[in-house]
Amino acid sequence: MPDGNAKKPSRIQKRNRRVILDAALEVFSSYGYRGSTLDQIAAEAGLSKPNILYYFDGKEAIHVTLLSRLMQTWLDPLVAMDPLGDPREEILAYVQRKLDMARDLPRESRLFAGEILMGAPRMMPHLQTDLRSLFDEKCALIQHWIDAGRLPDLDPQHLIFSIWSTTQHYADFDVQVRVLQPDDPDPHARASLHLRAMFGRMLTL
Amino acid sequence: MPDGNAKKPSRIQKRNRRVILDAALEVFSSYGYRGSTLDQIAAEAGLSKPNILYYFDGKEAIHVTLLSRLMQTWLDPLVAMDPLGDPREEILAYVQRKLDMARDLPRESRLFAGEILMGAPRMMPHLQTDLRSLFDEKCALIQHWIDAGRLPDLDPQHLIFSIWSTTQHYADFDVQVRVLQPDDPDPHARASLHLRAMFGRMLTL
DNA sequence: TAGAATTTTTACCATTTGGTAAAGTCACGA
DNA sequence: TCGTGACTTTACCAAATGGTAAAAATTCTA
Predict the structure, then answer these.
(1) B 141-200 residues with CB below 8 A of A?
(2) Are B70 and B108 in contact (CB under 8 A)?
(3) Same domain, yes or no, for A127 and A196?
(4) Are B26 and B106 in contact (CB under 8 A)?
(5) Which of A31, A185, B24, B172 is the most exposed, fewest CB within 10 Å of its CB?
(6) What is the extent of the structural domain holding B40?
(7) Same domain, A86 and A152
(8) B65 near B55, Cβ under 8 Å?
(9) Residue B117: its chain A contacts at CB < 8 A?
(10) Are B120 and B195 found together in one domain?
(11) Residue limits of the HTH tetR-type domain (chains A, B) (predicted)?
């Protein structure tokens, strides 16, 4: 019974768990939770369905595992915002990191978006704890910068919302972006310039 | 056989079709296409499942009907951007209209977001025609304003993307916003001020 | 290498779900 | 008010899907 909490995951266990989670990420991010089937995940992973269920307690357990691991990755760029750095450059660097994530981890972005869009049925606890405390902390930091006259007067919470939405847009609404810019060889580069210009202006005293 | 293309929809037909579409919007926007069942829609509409299928050819037909009608509503605020108005005020007014839509039509916004997130399997034709031509037209308009020196040099396409993403964020990621701002009595008002400030700065020469 | 433990497959099962056939019920014009 | 067409319900069905039991195969260890 290797699922749940095994003490010493064997080599095979480690490999297959990773393979399953990767396949599940691919499938869940493409079709959503309800739109994905264990058969699809099994096919993508190159394993049989009962074999999948040997490693995870069920479809929901796979999804929950993915979301839990995702949360860490998701918060890292915000964690890296340094109170000791230059306010403007710290925030602009955060925008850039977020945009890079949308390009490099589109599946993770869409998985997250789908979960939130559905009302976060499985992620709510994580939001209320991890995300919430980090969000409050960084909002306070930005407010502190504002009070010290190092940033113009702005709304820290909605600034972060705008950073999230504009960057994740390029992953979550990827199809739409591609339909409207079919010939752009490097949409990411132009997006980066645009966002740097926009937030750069906003953060200038 | 009232589905498809009836000539003269009776009073009952009109009422029930409307009731069904409204129920389907509620259900689809909450659980996604695959996550929604005809039984749910039937229950929400107060009708039996076979009765639903008397008015629509099937689950997919309901979804397609909703998406088709939605596209019009969705494009209206952009259509209203007037080439003869003041560039800055026209764009800022568009931002405001979009934000109002996120507040007043959150179900429509989430339905649209879910469809795009899943790769627009049913909406792709509409995107490639209606949306595409309007997008190109308004990008050209903005570029024209820039060339005339009436707007600062910016990227019209990505400006529109940023307007879409920041405004729809308040509908699509509503749960997240509420988790992070549990005490805000009027999040919409603050969002409006924030977006006006942000895009206002961006559009200032 | 023998035996134990782990991993994988085969053969199922119960439920859900989109959809249909056909019988009944209702509304309305002649 | 009567008959015809529009509407609704009842009773189903086939396929898909999450999940299980147990046998078979493989790997690890003493």
Answers:
(1) 154-155, 157-159, 161-162, 164-166, 168-170, 172-173, 175-177, 179-181, 190-191, 193-195, 197-198
(2) yes
(3) yes
(4) no
(5) A185
(6) 11-57
(7) yes
(8) no
(9) 32, 110, 113-114, 117, 172-173
(10) yes
(11) 14-74
CA dihedral A175, A180, A185, A188 (to 10 degrees): -60
Whether CB of B75 is under 7 Å from strand C: the answer is no
Q: Which DSSP state fits A127?
A: I
Other Cβ atoms within 10 Å of B91 Cβ, number: 25
Please check whether residues B73 and B152 belong to one and the same domain: yes
- CB contacts, 8 Å: A91 with chain B: none
Amino acid at B160: I
Query: Is the domain of A118 the same as that of A145?
Result: yes
Residue type, B201: R
Q: How many CB atoms lie within 10 A of CB A38?
A: 17
In the block, tokens 């937030």 appear at A199
Backbone conformation region of residue B120, classed left if phi is above 0, alpha if psi is from -120 to 50, else beta: left
Query: How do the pLDDT tens digits run along chain A, 205 residues long?
Result: 554 454 567 777 999 999 999 999 999 999 999 999 999 999 999 999 999 999 999 999 999 999 999 999 999 999 999 999 999 999 999 999 999 999 999 999 999 999 999 999 999 999 999 999 999 999 999 999 999 999 999 999 999 999 999 999 999 999 999 999 999 988 999 999 999 999 999 999 8
Same domain, A87 and A168: yes
Are residues B124 and B176 located together in one domain of the fold? yes
Which residue of chain B has the CA closest to A32?
B118
Query: Chain A residues with CB inside 8 Å of B194's CB?
Result: 154-155, 158-159, 162
Could you give the number of structural domains in chain A?
2
The candidate with the shortest Cα–Cα distance to B65, out of B3, B131, B149, B113, is: B3
Phi and psi at residue A92, in whole multiples of 5°?
-65, -35
Nearest to A109 by CA among A174, A21, A193: A174
